[in-house]
Structures are given as structure tokens and as C-alpha cells.
Prior knowledge:
Elements: E1 2-4, H1 5-9, H2 19-28, E2 32-38, E3 45-55, E4 63-68, E5 73-78, E6 88-92, E7 107-109, E8 112-114, E9 117-118, E10 158-163, H3 174-185, E11 207-211, E12 217-228, H4 233-241, H5 249-261, E13 264-269, E14 280-286, E15 292-295, E16 301-304, E17 308-309, E18 321-329, H6 331-338, H7 348-352, H8 360-374, E19 376-379, E20 384-386, E21 393-398, H9 399-406, H10 412-421, E22 425-427, E23 434-439, H11 449-460, H12 480-497, E24 501-502, E25 508-509, H13 511-516, E26 538-539, H14 544-556, E27 561-571, E28 577-587, H15 605-616, E29 620-623, E30 631-641, E31 644-652, H16 654-659, E32 665-671, E33 691-700, H17 705-715, E34 720-729, E35 737-746, H18 755-773, E36 776-777
Helix pairs in contact: 4-5, 5-8, 12-15
Amino acid sequence: MILTRAWLSEWINLQDITSEDICSTLNTIGLEVDSLKKIRVPKNIVVGKILTCEKHPNADKLNVCEVDLGSETKQIVCGAKNVIKGQHVVVSKVGAILPSGMEIKKAKLRGVDSNGMICSSSELGLPIMGDGIMILDDSIGTLVLGREFSEYELINDDIVEIELTPNRGDCLSIYGVARDLSVPYDLDLKEFNSKDDDKQLGIGRVLNVSANDKVDSSLLYRVYDKKEMKSSLLIDFRLAIVEAYKPTSLQRVIEYAVYTTGTLLRAYSHTSFESQNNKATINIKKHNNGLNAVYNQNDEVISFVGVLQNEESKVKEEDMMVILEANYTHPEIISVNSTDKKLNFDSHLYRSSRGSEPNLDFGMSYLIELLKKYSDITLYAKDQQVSQDNDDVIISINLDILTDIIGEKIKQDKIIQILKRLGFKVVFKGEQSVMHVIVPPYRHDIVNIQDICEEIIRIIGIDNITSKPTIFTEQYQMNDSYHNFQKCKMYRHRAVGVGYFETVHFVFDHQKRAKKYGLKTVYKTRNLTNPITNELDTLRSSLIPNLLESVSKNIKFGKKSIKLFEVGTVFNQNREERKDIAFVFSGEVESHKVSNHGKPKEVDFFKFAESISKVVGSFELETYTNKNNLTSPYECARVILNGSDIGYISRVHLGVEKELNLYRTYICELSMNALSYERKEAKFYSKFPESVRDLSLMVSKNIIFSELKKYLYSIAPKELVKLYPIDIYEDESFDKCISLTLKFHFQSDEKTLEDKEIIDIIGKILKSLKKKFGITVR
């Protein structure tokens, strides 16, 4: 944001304050100054008036001018195309030294004497303002012939460039910066007044504006008839300084009003909306891209509010009736609906997405006054508006809490004074210790007590807050955060011990990719408003996609066996977060060595599950129907720990393996909260030997093993301490059954079990199985 001292002085009295002090104050209040540059026109350069202008007798492109310099008249040869009789110009007299170092001397050009030079803005070290010489007018002050040009303060100005953070759209204007600057200096802003002529024709004769109830922008329209359109030297000069110079006079006046007030302003040709009886009809509706759009009577989009205006609707030289528009849309609406829509846009989007000035009357009135001052127009009375009644943002603040956050007690009167000068309203209801702050509509970035504290501190100055020594006090550290940290640390160390490498990724994900994999993403209403990139445009709902990308990159680097894990935050559709741990194993089980003859096997489901169990402990697997496109429908299971479903384990879908050029790859994602983290306790164990028996049973294919296991434990005596499957065998002669081999572990706490006792236990188990499921011994 570029501003000048004289421009700021139109809104705040800076007469007794140096430019250096202004820069220091801007830095203090958080508007970081990038540079300070002072424009000073050299001496012996004065104001002149061209009395005569004749063609050079010996050169087609030169003119011979008689120039009145107040106390004398000089003949000067000039080659500028725009030089004519009667103009006030800037003249470098003989002996003047220009900023480029060139000294002006008497010269003879094509046989004609020339005593000085009529200057362009660039020759004076000023920014370029069109082609040709610099033509003066009284916008910079009274033009006195022969007066040193260095005495005109509006030209010999100090330029300050500041860096603004994206949330400070309220300071993207001269008025906005002046408003902030008035607070530390305790100065009043200068009032701006305007008045319409009551004798004007009403706007209703030439314009009709309508909007449907879905529109969430505010708009204000005025209309004028043009007789002559002009800008001014001061407007052109300042726009050139801030690098916003426009090709036409109307565009420059509008841009100047936008830059001064912060209000978004546009001008339309009346013919773009014209229908019958020379009356224009403007319809404002919600476009299917989510933006508010301005339509003409043929239902054609003329502009997107705060984003873009069609070239065809812009005012041309021959247009005699012009429609002016001021508009405001909340920056969040603009940001959400313009991101990743591949829309064209103009300079308005930069301002509207950061927050423009919502006081449309102010911006429009300022523009009208400029037009009336420098141009010849006939304005139609009154305006037509589409306005939105937005609720006030009210923040209730306990003054004691405010003091704790700031670290020092600030006088209540001082706090109120700061907030009111910044445009906030302060109300006390009942309790005098609770302050209700009403946030001004141009400060959309203020949402909580911390933001209010920041406003107070930046005005007071962080250096003016008394420093206090740090006090170290011992606190009880055994809280939930500590236990969660230790839990994650334990499982991370276990995973590393099993051979997995830890990875860390952003909590963001690519929404398009997540949907392709069939993952549930955050609801649109709760999604990111301003993603850092188009590829990281939502919050991740799974750790697996990023892990697979890392596996793919490792394979491209020539790795044959990749074991990765990550502990991180994921989000459900309501943007509620939880912590998961995810594993991926791709490629070969082990490295090339003599024992495997240099040909290690690829990882399989059971090898992967075994490695996971070494990290999280013993678990059970149950049938799982995959609900996304990442998992294979044939090798997929739910992970059951202590009777609870804590996640899944699966092979990656073949389609994904091919897409990412992966080896055979297995994945597992578990809820970190569901993993155990309990105090280690010593437990009794039997000193008597364990007896093991294998039983091959004929089991129906329809029986689920988890149900069978649960039943066996329910009927078996306490001597059965463990059982698990070790083999499955199928044969055509088995019909609808399979041969399932189970290993039974028996052990008593009181004695060594004899064979007869074990046989009796097995007999009872087999009898119960046959009665319940029809299971027999093979």
C-alpha cells in the first residue's frame, strides 16, 4: 500500500508531525513501513504559460513557443505533441540541473534559439503521466507564473510504502490508514460533506434496480449525464505514484476515489442496461458459481460483484449517460466462491477478498464530488440501493481477563478511547467489569477477545507494556496432554523398533483425490476458506493417501521394501478431529541376503498383520466390507482390540497399486485413542506346565470364526487358556465344509493336567460343538 503525506493530510492534521515520526508510528501500530521516499523538484524550475506556439520553420516535429515566466518571457523550442497555446507548464530555466544530472543550457535547434526546456513529468524525476509535457492546473495550488515548482507541496511530497497483512483490508485506502493513524496521535478525522442539488431530475426516470432475496451483497447506484469529462493533475500525479494510472479521465477519477475511500466503485454505460423509453433495468441475482451477478434486461451477466466487469459494459468516449455503482460483499463470500473457479478477475478482487469499505454512501459521495469539481456533469437526484441488514458482531469482555491477557492493567478510559477512535462502539450493561464491544463492519477480522487485545496493544505499543521477569513455578505435569504425548511416543518407538520409518505430512489433502478414493471429506460449509494451494484445499480424513504418495516416491528412488507409518490428526465431515496411527508396507519382506538366495518374498496379509501386532499388541480380525476405493475387496478386515473395532487392515486396491506404480502394498489405519495405554501390572502365572492339543474340525463355510471362538471360550473350563487357528484345508469331498485346525492350550493354576483330564475336556467341547453347530472331528 503506497500513500503520501499530503494525501493523508486531507483526512488528518499532520502539520506538526514529521514524516519520519509518521513512519515510526505506523510501524508501532502494526502497519509496517517498507520505504520512505521524498520527492523534491530541483531549483530553477518554474511555472510558465505558453503565450504562442508556432511550427518550427525547419522541423516538422518541433514547435517554437513564447513562454511567460512571470518576470520575463523566453523563447523555447519544444518537441512534445501535446503542447498548445494557453497551457500552464513546468519550465527548466537555463542553468537548472535536472534529477538525471543534465544541465539546461542555451541552445540553437535547427537554427532557432531555445532558452530553457518545457518538461515532462519523467524529466523532473516524477512518475510518468501519459505522453508529452506536464500540463498544470490549479488542483496543486494557485499557479503563479515564475514561482519555483519546488514550492508546491502537493507535488513535493513524501511517499510512504507500507506492508499490509491480508486481514487488514480496512487499511487498503488513504482514509483507512488515516483512521488508524489518528488513534495514537489522538487526532480527529476531518469530516467529508456533500450535498445534492434538489432541482435535479429523479433517478427513477432513467434507472430501475431489483434484486432477489438470495443476494448477499450491498449495492448503490447513481446516474449522471456527461457534458465534459476531465481528471486533474493532482489525481493523475497521485495515481502515477501508487502505480494505478488509468488511460481515461473517468477511469482515473474512479480509481482515485476507490484508493482514497476503500469503497469499490464501477461505471457502466447506460446503454448496457437500456430497455424501453431510455430507461435502464438492472437485475441482481445469485449466479450458479455462488457469486452475486449484475444482469441486464436480456439476462446477460454484466459483472460479478467484487470480481469482474465485462469490457462491453465499460464507459466509452461517446457514452453520454453513465451509471455509477458502489458495492460491498463480505470477503469470506468472495474468497469461498472465487477460489478455484477459474474465473477472470480485475483489480476489485484483491480488495473485495480482503475487505473493502462497506460505507457505500461515503465512497459514492466522494466520487460524485470529484466529478462535479473537475468535470461538467448533470447528476440525477437520489440513488437506488440494494442493502443487507447484517447483525452486529458483539464481543463481551471481562476487564480482568483483558488485563491478564495484556499483562498489564490499562486504564478503562484509555481502552474506551482507543476502541472508539478505531470505530468500535463500547457499551456497559449492568456489570461495570464487563465491556460489550460492537465491531465496525469494516473490521471483519475481529472475532474474539484476543483480537481486541491486539488492537489495544498495537496502539499503546508493545514496547510500552512493562516487562516482567519470567516466573517458573512447578506444576503437576501428569495431565491428559502429557499422557497422550507419552502414549504416542510409546507406539512411535515400537513402530520404529519393528522397522517402520516415520513420516510427517500436512493435515491438508486434495479434495479431488480424496473423493476419487471414496473418502468422506469435510462438509462444504465447514471446509477451508482460503486454502494455501489448490492441491491442499481440504482437511484430511485419512492418513493413507499421503502415505501411499510417499511410498510411490520411494519406489521411484529405487527402494524395494518400504515400511512407513504416521501418527497424525484426521477430521470427520463435521471437522471434528481425532488422532490416528497408520501403517503401510510395500514390496519385499526383507533385504537380499544369503538365506533367501537374493530373492526375498513379497509382503503378504499375514506378514503385515504380524508386524502390526508387534506394535499395537495382540488383536483379532473380523470380516470387513470395504467402504472406499483404497482397499481391496478380497484382503480386508476390521481390527478388533479388547472387543472394540479400532480400524482396518487391508491390501491396497489393485487399481490404486497400478495408478501409483506400487509393489504389492498393505495398509492399516487405527484409532490412536482406542489403543491401550495402561499402567503395567504384575499378574499371577501358573508354575505348572502347559499342554497343547491340535484338533482338525469339519466346519460349515457359513460359520464365522469369531462367533465360534466366542462360543468355545464360553463353554470351556478355565483350564483352556488360549486357542487359535493354524490351518484351513478345502477339498471337493468336504461338500459345504472346510477342515479347520485349531490349537488348544490347557494349563491349570493348581496342578499338572493329566492326559485323561485333557481328553475329558476336549470330549465335552466336541460334544457341545456338534450339538450347537454340527461340527465333527475330521
